Queue: 3 jobs
Job 1
Amino acid sequence: MPDAIRSDFQPMSFDPDASVAESELPMSQAPASPCTPAPTCSSPKDEIVDAGPDLSSTLNTDWAGGGWDTPAMAPKAAPSETTFSDAKHSEFPTSNGFPIYRQGDSEWADQKIGTGAKSKNLHQVGCAMSSAAMAMSKLTGTTITPATIDAFMKANGGMNGNKIADWKKFGQLATPPVDVNRTKRSPTDMLADLRAGKPVVFGVNYTGGTDTHHWLLATGIAPDGGIMANDPATGNVITFELNKATGKFECASEVKKGVTHDYVMTGDAAVFTSKAKAS
């Protein structure tokens, strides 16, 4: 039986933890086309702003309200899968049984993250929060949106200013709690986690460095042995392939200004394990 959501939680509003300074990707309001269920992120639709030290000045300007010509379509759940919905969404798109949440969704885009006086919003820095919400929704079989999980974290000591103080708090939204282990993960580790039914929120760099700039959710293993991931920056399902030269999962991503960078796995990760399934 899936974990249940705590009935005593009253919703009220992430950012990577204090060791990571995240520059967030901008959002499109249009999810991926269903014509290619797991496109590689070299698609020209997967545009990101050319990364600098701080992207906050570019957010909510060029990308506010979307701007892509992709129709607002995405794969729906198969009949045997759990469906996810709320008052504003009759059904969220899914991939591998996980809902796909976009941090720039108008339902929660402007919700402030954390407890700091200069807190940014989910649209700007909500990639980790959105990824955690997708993982928790799948493992509990209920709809847990980025807004809901962010509010829970703020109300229950999960945040330190605008940073995540305790990743385990994510799992305490469910009864019994989901175990969340903030750790380092190699490609071999991630493949083992996914085979065991454990979703992994993982960090990537897209400027050629080693710091984590963005978080995604690994949901399964692609037919070619790569990683399938939900990208909360775009709402796309993308695939990562192993670069044998570097030993890291990578995925090419088209930059808005016409320069191609790669999403490169940094090793930062959080593994989500359902205690109900384990028992």
Note: The chain has one domain: 11-278.
Job 2
Amino acid sequence: MLSKNTKSICFLLNCILVVSILTISCKSEQQTASTDPIISLNSTTDWGNLIGKKVSFTGEAADVKMGAIVTTDKYVLWLDDLERWPDGIYTKGKEVVSTQVFVTGILNERNDLPVAETSGNKITQGVSNSGENPGHRYVLTVYHWYEVK
């Protein structure tokens, strides 16, 4: 059985450990927060030069099989790990309402979209294999979004 003093010392050491862990995690969050200016994207911007940069973008919200996207006349921007927009943004019940949204986050790119293949008269499901980079997509990570009213 531990003495009262030993229990008090163990409790104190556990408290110090918890405070230390919380302090370290708060500092690492502050250090990773970007202080770079936010770059506003538009349909004439060359997005390929902005990979890894903090960007902002306004477009129309939509849901597709692989997740939530924001679209313009030229680009599609995927929101990482957002499977679908909350009710009222792209749909309201079963009705499509498609809303304008403003998003800010880190721009990344991936080449992970399934590409449709044609074999004889059979076509597999996926994106078109035409164009210079089939399967490519722009993805926004560490993002925030707001409905444009």
Note: The chain has a mean pLDDT of 74.
Job 3
Amino acid sequence: MIRGLGRGPRRLQGVGQIARDGEAGHGVGAGLSGPAIKPIALRMVYDAAHAVKIPVIGMGGISAPADVVEFMLAGASAVQVGTASYFDPVATETLVEELTAYCREHRIERLSDLIGGLLTD
């Protein structure tokens, strides 16, 4: 669900549809999260990073070092790992180790140098 107040800050909480059980008053439904929303999340991070002067945290489909790099290039100052942790309880620790190796391999000295580095036409 995309939430926001007018043109102000927004956040992405999965994308889906929620229905109400009229009799019990409970919410029921299903939605998408993780890799399924990554393209939407990347665009929202890019838009938010260009609209505000505060750090933006990227989330939505982050499970590999390349995902972290993409979100940071789009403007994220940090990332959150969510859905990947359901499948692998140590996904975050593994990602940090793999990201360190990725940076070494690609000669990236500081992740912060990537923030907002996406070039657009």
Note: The two ends are 29 Å apart (CA to CA).
